[in-house]
Predict the structure of Pecanex-like protein.
Amino acid sequence: MGNGVPLLNDYKQEFFWKRFPQTVLGGPKLRLGYDAPVYVYTNQVVIFLIPWIIGGLLSLFVELDFLKDYAGSAVFAAIMFIYVLLIQLISLGIRSKQSSVIKITNQNILAEDDEIDFESCCGVETLEFIIPGKKFKVNVFFHALFSAVMCGIGLWYLLPSTSNALYNNTAVTVILFIFGWITLCIAQYSLTVAPPPEPAVFRTTDPYEITPLMRPFYVFLFEVVFLVAMFYSDFYMVDWVLHILFPILPVFWILGCLPPVDALLSWTCEQILIFLLGGTAMANDLRLFCMFLVSITVFVIVFLIAFYTNNTMAIVLTAACTGYLLSLDLPNLASQLISKCRKRPTIEHKPVGFGWSTGWKECLVYFGMFLVVGAISGVCSNSISSSNTSIYNALGYAIMGLLVLAKLLTDAQLVFVGFGLCRNPLYPSSTQSMVPYQKRKKVLHGVGYIRRIILDAVGPLVMVAYLSLFMIPSTSSINTFSLSLATVRALRWCWQSTTHSLLEISIVHLINMAVGVTTGWWYDLGMGLQLLLIGLIRDRFYQLLDQLYFIFAVLITSYSEKKQRRSSTIPMIIVSLCIFPIILAVMFTCVALSAPLLPLFTLPVFILGFPRPLRSWPGPVGSSANICPDTVYYQQVTPQLVSSLRMSIASGSLGDVNSGCHYLLRFQDRMVWLQVLEKGYGYCTFSVKGLEMQETSCHTVEAGRVDEIFETAFDNERGGACYLNSYPFHTLTALDAVPVNTYSDARNVLTGIIDSRETLANVGKCFLQSLVWVMLHHNVQKSQKRQDTQNGTAVEKHDTSQTSLVHHVNTPDTVPDTWTSRKDSGKPESVKTRPQSRAKSVKSWNSSFGSLDSWADDNDSLALDTIGDKTKKVNLLGGLETHKKEPTRKEAELPGLLTNLNDDDNMDDLFKELDFGMPAIDKSIAQKQQHSFGLPALHSNSGIKLAGSIQFSSPYSSKLSLPLKWREIPIESNRIASLLKDFPQDWFKHVLTLLDLSTSNKSSSEVAADIANDSVLSDTYRQLVMACYAVVNVFGLTGTDAVSMGASHVYRTYTGDVPWSPSLDWLTEDSELLELVLKAYRFGFKLAYDQAVLGEIEGTDELVEYLQEYENDWYIGCEKDKEWSSGVLQGKNNLFSLMYDPVDGVYNGRVLSKQPVMAYVGRLNAEVIRGYWASLSQELFYYTNDDEERYSIQAHPVLLRNLTVQSADPPLGYPIYASPPISIPTL
C-alpha cells in the first residue's frame, strides 16, 4: 500500500511549486505556471527591493555621520509610511474605478482557470494582480503605520555599527547586513501588498486580516529586545543571540515553526496560566482570557500585599483562599447563576445528583471547604516562627505517603499495572459475566472512594498546611515579585492538580533533605520557585517520554508494518539514524516549547511544529460536525456516557485525568473520542466526538486492532487473571470498562423467514388485525383530544355531541315518532373551520331513509336551522331562505341535522354533508341498492360513498366515527365485495372492549358493548379497512396475490413504496390515512416475523400484548425516517427496521434494544495525537492535499492514524458528532 499511494499527486505538486516561492520571498508571485509578461515579475521585484534600496542609502548616510542613527530611523520610518500608504491608495483607487466600469474581454477558453490576460505594465489587471488590496480599508493606514515603525527600528537594528558593537567581526557584520535586510524586506512585503501562503496555519479563514502581521510581528519582537538591551545590560546576551537568529527567520517561516499571532497569544496565555499561575488549560479562548485576567488580578493583589505590608499571614491567607476558589469550575458556576437570574428554561436534561447544578448543598460544601482552607492557612502562617524540623519532616513524609497510597489505589482499579505491561489480578477476569464483574467492581469502587478522600480532602489540606508553614521563611532573600508569583502558584496548584502537586512537593522535600545545605542557588530559589521549577520539569519530562515513543514508533513501524513500507523507507531510516542528534535537538525544542513534533506527511521525517494550545483547534468546541443519520446514536448516548464516566474519573479507574489527555471508547459498532479540555478541583471538562459507523477499509483495520486490544484486556481468560499485555507498545492502553445505557445493535438475516409462504400469508392476516387496531386507537385518541380541548375552553356539550334527534322512517307510508336514534354528522369534532370550496360536480344522492316517498310531493318546505343564525331557515327543496323568530322549544329535526356547526362553515359543506342537490333517480333502483340496516347505499359504479349522513343505532358511535374525508372511497364496490368477508369482525369487537370509551353515565365496557352492536359503524370500518387492504395487497400486483409476489412486495410496502394502481392516489393524497396504513403494515410484518421466530400467537390476549408493546416500547419503521431519529433521541426501548442488501441480495432485520452495554475505555498517547493533527493541518492547509486516498490517511494499526485524522475538528477531520464542552462533577 505504501508504494502505491503518492504523497502528493501531480496536480498538487504543480500547485505546491507555484506557491513555495511566495512562501520563501514573503509574497512575490514569481512562478505562475503560465507565460506572463516580464513586467509582471519586474514590478514585484521592484516593490520588494525598494525598502532595501532606500534603507541602504540611509544606512550609508548614518555610517558616514551625515545623520544620527535615530534620525535616520525616523526618516526611513516616514518614507516607508508614505510608500505603503501610496501603494495601497493606488490599488484602492483602481479597484473603485474598475467597479464602476463594465469591461468586456475575450476570454481564452483554452487558458487555465487562474490564468490572467495582462494588457500593459500599469494596466488594471496587472495592478490588481500585484497589489490585491486590503480587506478592510482601515488596515491601509494601520499596516502603513506598523511598517513605518518596524522598518524605522529595523534600520537601526541592521546598521553595520550595531553589528560591529556586538561581534567586532567584519564578515559577521556583512552577512548580518545582507541577510538581515532580506529578512526585513520579506516581512515588510506582506504589509505593503499581501501575505504569502504560510505553512503555519491555525485558523481556516482570516476574518480579521491578522495574517499580514505574522512575519512583521516577529521582526518587531527582535527589535524590541534590541531596544531594551540598549538600556538594560542584563539583556545583552539575549540580544547577541537574537541578532544571529534574525537572518535565519525566513527558514523558520518556511518550515512553519513560528506560530501565527493568534495561536501565539493563546499559547502564551495558556503556558503562563498553567506554569506560573497554577491554573489549567481552558476549553476555549474566551474562558482562557477571562481566567487569565482573573488570575493576573489575584497575583497583583498578592504582590501589592507583599510589597506594601510584607505580612506573611495576609499573603498566605489571600493566596490560599483565592487559589481554592479559582480551582473550581467558575465558568460553569457563573453560567448557571446567570441562567437562574434570567430564569432561562433548561433545555438539556442533566443527570440528577450532587454537583450537576449549583444548589444549596453545593454552596454549603464549597463555603465549608473555603472556611477550612482559610483557617488552616491562617493558623499555619501565623505559626511559622514556632515550626521546627520535626514538623517539617512529619508533613513531608505524610505528603509522600499520601502520594504513594493514591498511586497504589489508582493502579488497583486499572486493568493493567506496571506501566501497562502486566494485567491487574484484582480486576475482574471477564466483563461477559455481569454478576461476578459487578461484585469485583463494587470492591474496586470502595478503593476508589478511599482515593477520592485522599485527593479531594486530606491531600490538599495537608499540602496547604505544609506550604503555609515553610514556603515563606522568615529570612527570605527572594524578591517580592518572585515570592508572590511562587506563592500564588503553589497554593492554587495543590487544588487544581492534586496528584501532580503531591509529586512535586515530595520531590522538593526529598531534594532538600538530600542536599541539607542552607546556601547555594537551589536554596536561594525558595520553596515556591523550587516547586515551580520541578513542576515545569515534570510536565516536560512526561512530554519527552511521549515524543520519544512517537519517534521510535514511526521509525520502526514504517518498516515493520508491511503496508507502511515505501521505496524510500530504508533510506529515510538510515538518514534519520545518521542525523539522530539533530532529531533529538528538534524533539527537545518541541518539548521545551510544548509544541507538537510534526512528522512530515506522517513519514519518519520530523520537524518542529509551531506551538499551539493543548486543545489544538481554534474554533468553538463542538461547533461543527459531519452530520449524518448515525449522528443520533451519539446524541442519545452522550448523556448516558457522561453519567457513567463521572464515577470512573472521580474514583481514578481512568488513571490521572488531566487537560490534554485523549481517550477512546469502543462499544457495539461505535467509537467515541474524548478530549479533556479542563481539569480542576471537583470537575472535569471534555468534548465528545463520535466517529463514523459506516466503516471504510482503513477504519475497519484500525477498529479491528482496537477490538483485539480490548478483548485481550477485558475478556481474555487464556492466562487467568494475571498475564502480560499483548500490545504493550501500542498507542492505545486499555484502562477500564463502564456500563452505558444505550442501544445494542442486532442484525439478522431473514432468509428462510421473509420468503416463506406461511410467513407471507400471515403478513396479510396480521396486517388486517393491525389495521383495525391502529384505526380504532387513532380515532378514539382524536376523540379524547377533542373532548379535552372542549373541556379546556369551557364549552358545554352533551356527551353525545355532534348528533341530533331524528325520526326513523321505516316505510314510505308510516313515520313512527315513538322511536329515536342518534346520527353522526360526519364532521370531525376537532375541526372548527373547513376550507372554502367551489361547487363541485353533482353526486348521486341515495337517501338515508327507507324511501323517498315520504318526502315526495310535499308542499311544506323542509326547514333547517342555518349555520350560526337561528332566525334563518333553509328550504332544502326550493333552496330558499326565510326568516322566522327563534323557537322557544326544541323543534323536531330532520335526519342528518347538524346542530352545532360554526358560523364560518359554508353551505357547500352542508350540501356535501347531506349529498344535497342530486338529480332525481329511479326509486325502484334505489330500493334495490338500499342496505338492509338502513345505511345509505354504499356502493355505486363510481365508488363507495360513505360521506352522506349516517344513522348510527348507538348514541356513542360518534366517538369512533370516521372522518368525512375517509368515507369517500373511489373504488367500485364489486372490486372489494369478495374481500369484505375477511374483515376480522370478532377482533374488531374485542378491540372495542380495550378502548377507554367511558362517559359520565356509563362505564367503558358498557359503552363498548353498545357500540359493538352498531352494525352501521362496523360496516363503515369494514369498507375502509378492506379498501386500504385492497390498495396495498390486491390492486397493482402483477402476480395472483401478495404471497406469489414474494418478499419484494413486503419490503417495498414496508418502506412505503406501495404498488401503483389507479386507487393509490386516493390513499397517498391523505397523508394521515397513509401514515396509519403504513404503521399497520409494519406492525403486521413485525407480528408475522415474531410468530415465525417465537411461535404462533395463542389467543387474542397475547395478540393484544404484542400490539400494546409495539405501541408503547417500539418504533417499527425505516432507518431513514425522521421518526426513527426521534425515537432514538427519545430513548425508545426498541426499534426495528427491515433492510435489503442489494449486493448480497438478502433481507435483514435490524433491532435496536436499549440496555446496559459495556463500553471499553483506553488512553491514547497525547503527543501522537498532537503530532498527527499538526501534520494534518499543514498538509491540508498549505499543501492542499485533500486526496481521499493519500498516504497520510491510510490505516496504521499501531498508531491509529486514520482514527486520529477522523477525530480532528472539521474541515480537517470528519467526526459525525461533536459535543460542546461538557463539565462533569467529580466530588
